[in-house]
Design brief:
The complex is a heterodimer. By secondary structure, chain A is an alpha+beta fold. Chain A has a domain of about 160 residues: Beta Barrel (Thrombin, subunit H). Chain B starts with a helix and ends in a 9-residue tail after the last helix. The longest helix of chain B has 28 residues. Chain B is mainly alpha-helical. The chains are: A alpha+beta, B mainly alpha.
């Protein structure tokens, strides 16, 4: 017992250490975010002392940091900011370049079609983007009912034209109809309407194929040129399901490969030099 | 008594240096804690009754000014003081051993801070431990000797020679 009494400074220290660790743990969950009288009283004091430390410490930092170093630091900070902006711009340009190269390749593989390239400047906010606005209009030779396409497939048809803009009714519009044909069998039909599954858009519906038409999953569907709005031979999509049970009126479901949500550029077909197919 | 009075301005100067001046002077995060060195020096050169109040108040002030956890530095400084006192009690006030004793005390204090930080979810930064914390510990230990010598110089006879 006497030995323990002799060691009392150590016991006091031990108890103080434990209590202080508990206090530290108590304040570790973020100052000011908790409740309780203790923390409510402590937080303003600690915050005030922190701000004092910041101000006075900042003064000494300014005193001990040479002017040249501070200026160099400032310049480096500005350079980093500028380079970050340039990097973001470069990234954006690189992506745009990739998209435009793809469009250019498509244009080069279709020499008989005359195109106007346009950027998407507006998009309907409904889930299926049934209308988009492009930044090309009558000044660029765009007129109503012209076909709008991308290398991924048909986008839709111009429905309204301004001097430097046009609105396009997309394939996601319920009322949109296109004359198409099955590339392999040359059977013609009509494409339009949406096929949804569990609230998700799966594709469009293919109707009015001849009775003995041999349509199969994986068949490529292209525009037939009938009606005159869409030039013949434009890629539309591929058959993803055939209606063998005869439920509904459609014959098959065709995929829509164009990403309407992320579409940024499109080609407006402003002229056809000769028929393709 | 004079020595005890000396502790008050010394503690205030140490807190001022730790909180305001040394952050501006630190290189690569190496920053000795004057308050820790002072607490250990007071425990070694004077007595644990002198060292512990210094450790407690210096630690608490350091926490209030600089740290997000109030009480952690105070606990760490008290640990270092207790270790320092234990060694001095066991081996006597041999000035040649002050620096190794202080090294053990500082390692214990920093270990406590490190363990607490890990316990509340801080990321383990081995590089910082090697490049900043360890050199800081060495500097803190080295500082104990001149501070202790200063306290002992106030007393007739200075350090005990054994």
């Amino acid at each position: 017992m006497r030995k323990l009494w002799k060691m009392r400074p150590m016991w006091i220290a031990l108890i103080a250490i434990v209590l202080l660790i508990v206090l530290a743990a108590f304040t570790a969950n973020g100052r000011g975010s908790g409740d309780g009288l203790f923390r409510t009283a402590l937080t303003p004091v600690a915050d005030f002392l922190h701000s004092v430390q910041k101000e006075v410490g900042g003064f000494f930092t300014r005193v001990f940091t040479p002017d040249t170093l501070r200026e160099e630091n400032e310049q480096l900070r500005e350079t980093v900011l500028l380079q970050q902006q340039q990097l973001a711009l470069l990234d954006e340009t690189e992506k745009e370049n990739a998209r435009l190269t793809e469009l250019l390749n498509y244009v080069e593989t279709n020499p008989n079609l005359r195109f106007v390239t346009a950027s998407v400047i507006g998009r309907d906010s409904n889930p299926y983007i049934d209308t988009i606005t492009l930044n090309a209009g009558s000044r660029s030779g765009v007129t109503e009912k012209m076909a709008v396409i991308t290398p991924d497939g048909v986008v839709g048809r111009v429905s309204e034209v301004g001097p430097n803009w046009c609105r396009v009714k997309t394939m996601c519009d319920e009322k949109m109809r296109i004359s198409v044909m099955v590339q392999r069998t040359r059977d013609e039909g009509m494409l339009g309407g949406l096929y949804e599954q569990d609230g998700e858009l799966i594709g469009t519906l293919l109707y009015y194929l001849p009775g003995k038409a041999d349509v199969r999953t994986g068949d490529t569907i292209r525009t037939s040129g009938i009606g005159g709005f869409f030039p013949k031979g434009l890629y539309v999509g591929t058959v993803i399901a055939v209606n063998e049970e005869g439920k509904g009126t459609h014959d098959a479901i065709v995929s829509m490969d164009v990403d309407f949500l992320h579409l940024e550029e499109a080609l407006i077909v402003v002229g056809v030099d000769e028929a393709i197919g | 008594m004079k020595r005890r009075l000396l502790l008050i301005p010394a503690a205030l100067i140490a807190v001022f240096l730790d909180a305001f001046v040394l952050p501006a002077l630190s290189q690569n995060g190496i920053r000795p804690l004057f308050t820790l060195s002072l607490s250990m020096a007071a425990s070694a050169a004077m007595s644990v009754q002198d060292g512990m109040p210094v450790a407690f108040f210096c630690g608490l002030l350091t926490d209030l000014f600089c740290n997000p956890y109030i009480g952690l530095s105070a606990a760490a400084y008290l640990t270092a003081c207790a270790i320092m006192y234990g060694f001095v009690k066991k081996c006597g006030q041999q000035r040649g051993l002050f620096i190794p004793f202080a090294l053990v005390g500082a390692v214990a204090a920093e270990t406590l801070i490190f363990a607490f930080s890990l316990a509340i979810g801080a990321r383990f930064d081995g590089l910082r431990l090697l490049s900043a914390t360890l050199p800081s510990i060495v500097l803190e230990s080295l500082l104990v000797y001149p501070i202790a010598a200063l306290f002992r110089a106030r007393e007739k006879g200075g350090f005990a020679h054994r």
